Amino acid sequence: MLLGVLAATTALKTAFGVVGTSLWLIPLLIAGMAYYRYEALDPESRPIDRYPLYKTYDFVVVGGGSAGAVVAARLSEVPHWSVLLLEAGGDENEISDVPSLAAYLQLSQMDWQYKTEPTGRACLGLKGGRCNWPRGKVLGGSSVLNYMLYVRGNHHDYDHWEALGNPGWGAREALRYFKKSEDNRNPYLARTKYHSSGGYLTVQESPWRTPLAIAFVQAGTELGYQNRDINGEEQTGFMLAQGTIRRGSRCSTAKAFLRPARLRSNLHIALKSHVTRVLIHPKTRRAHAVEFVRNGVRQIVYAKREVIVSAGAINSPQILMLSGIGPAAQLRKFNIPVVKDAPVGENMQDHVGLGGLTFLVNKPVAIVQERFQTVPVTMQYIIHERGPMTTLGGVEGLAFINTKYANKSGTYPDIQFHFAPASINSDDGVRVRKVLGITDRVYNSVYRPISNRDTYTLMPLLLRPRSRGWVRLRSANPFHYPVINANYFADPFDVATLVEGVKFALRIADSRAMRAYGSRLYRVPLPNCRRHRFASDAYWECAIRTTTMTIYHPVGTCKMGPPSDPEAVVDPRLRVYGVRGLRVIDASIMPTIVSGNTNAPVIMIGEKGADLIKEDWLKPPKGK
C-alpha cells in the first residue's frame, strides 16, 4: 500500500501544481483515508469507466457534472433505456473528498482553468486584469471543486421564471425537486415541510466550527435579522452554512447519484471523453449522434431518442455553436454550417462581489494555516471525520440582507454574505492568492504584512446583477477555449449596490458579538485606490473593481423561455428550439440567475429535466 500512496502523492502534487511543503500531509491523508474508511464507508465504490462502448444508446448525456450526473442516473432508472454519460475529465480522488482542501482543486487538472476577458472595469488587481473562472473537468463537475454550500435561492426567483412564460418552473414545483434529491441530516430541518431525508444528496452542517461563526450569526440578530433556515419559508436572515457533505467528506453529484447506479447494466460512463460536437441531420434537423475524442481517438456514438447537453454554462454554448446552433454571423465567421440561428452564449450572468475585505481579531480563533496544518488535525479528520478539515472550504456562515436598493417587501434580499474565519493572508500566500490570481503588488503591499495573523472576511455578493456577459467561439477548434466576457459592472447599478453591501459588512464587524474578539477593519489601502479617502464610497467602488471576486456561478447562456422570447434557446421543457432530439439541462438554461449559490438549483434542474424526458417518452399513446 505504501508504494501506492507514494505514487498517488506524486501524481497529486503534479496535478495540483503544489510547490514545496504546502501539502506535506498528503501521504498521511491518503494512507489514512484508504486504511480507515474511504472505500469501506462508500460500498458503492467508484463508477465504472466503460470500455468498449456500444455504437448506439437511447440517450447520450454530454457532461457528467452537477446536472449531467443527475440526469444520467435518473434516466437509467428506466430499465429498458440505455444511457451513455460522456465526461471530459477523470474521476474524483481522495483530496477532492476533503472539504477544507477545496482551494487546492482549483487550477488543477480537475479544473478547466478558464479566465475572463479583461475589460478595464473589474478584476483590476488580478493578473492580466482577468478573473479566474474554475469549472469542474471531472466526474461530478463543479460539485467536486466548489465550496459545497447548499443554497436554493429565493422563491421569488422561480415564480419569476414562471411569470416569464415557463410553466412548471415556479417555486412550488422547484421545492418538490429540491426535496426529491435531499437527504438532510439536521433533524430540526428534515422534519419541516421545506426539507426531506432519504434522497441521494446528503446535506448537513460541518461538524466543526470556530467561535467566530456563532458571533457572526449573533451579529445578525443584533442588526435586526433573524437566525433562520435560509432554505425555508423566507430567505432574509443569517445562518450557519449547510453543505453537501457526508460523514465530514464532500458529497458531489458523482458520489450522490452515480455511485449507487454504478452496477446498472443500462448505464455506461466514459471518462476522458471530450465532446467536439453534436451531429444534426441537415434535412430532418434531428440530433442523432455525438462526436468526441477519447484517448486521442475520434469516435461517434448514436442516440436513438435524444442527446442531452449538460456541459455547463461555458461548455454547453460552445458545443452548441460548434454543432451549428448559435448566432449565424459568428458561425459563418468560422465556416461552421448554420443549423439554427439562435442567441446561444448570450444572457450570461454571474454573482460578483468584493474579495479580500479583511478584519483583524485579537484572539486565536481564526483558521491560520500554520496552526491547523498539523498531524493531530489530519488524524482527527481521518479517524473521527471531524475537525477543521471538515469546514466547507473555509466558509462557515451565510447571510441575506436588504440594502436601500432592495425590494420593499423585505423578502427579496439583494446582497448575500459569505463569512469565513480567514482571509487572503491566512495561508501565507501559498494557495488563495494563486486561486484568485492576485498580483504580487497587491498581495505584497496589503496582505503579506499580516501573514498568518488571525483574521476573518465578509464577502458581499451581488445577488441579481443587471449586467450581462457572453460566451463566444474563439475558433472552430473544439479544443480552443471560448471567449468569456463576464462584462462585470457594465451597469453602474451593480457596483452601487455592492458598495452598500460593503457598508453593511462594516456594521456586522462593529457589532458587540464581533467586538468581543477585538474585531476591527484592516485599514491598509489597496495601492491603486490610495487616491480615494479610505472607506469612502469612492474607495469601496475602487476596491470592488480591483479585488473583484466571483464565486463561480455563471448561468443563462442557453436561456429558457417561451417561443415569443427572442433571447430563448430552449423551451420550458428544455428542448432546443429548431432542433429535434436535443435538450440542454444545466445552469445555462436559467433565464435569470438565482439569488444564492447555484449548485443546489442546478441539481434541481437536473432532477426536473430528467422527469420532463420521462414524461415525454413514457406517456401512454393517444387514445389509451
Automatic annotation (TrEMBL):
It comes from the Eukaryota. The keyword Acetylation does not apply. SUPFAM superfamilies: FAD-linked reductases, C-terminal domain, FAD/NAD(P)-binding domain. Residues 136-159, 312-326 form the Glucose-methanol-choline oxidoreductase N-terminal domain. PROSITE patterns: GMC_OXRED_1, GMC_OXRED_2. Its cofactor is FAD. InterPro entries: FAD/NAD-bd_sf, GMC_OxRdtase, GMC_OxRdtase_N, GMC_OxRtase_C. One of its GO terms (molecular function) is oxidoreductase activity, acting on CH-OH group of donors. Keywords: FAD, Flavoprotein. FAD binds at V138, V275. Belongs to the GMC oxidoreductase family. This is Glucose-methanol-choline oxidoreductase N-terminal domain-containing protein. It comes from Gryllus longicercus.
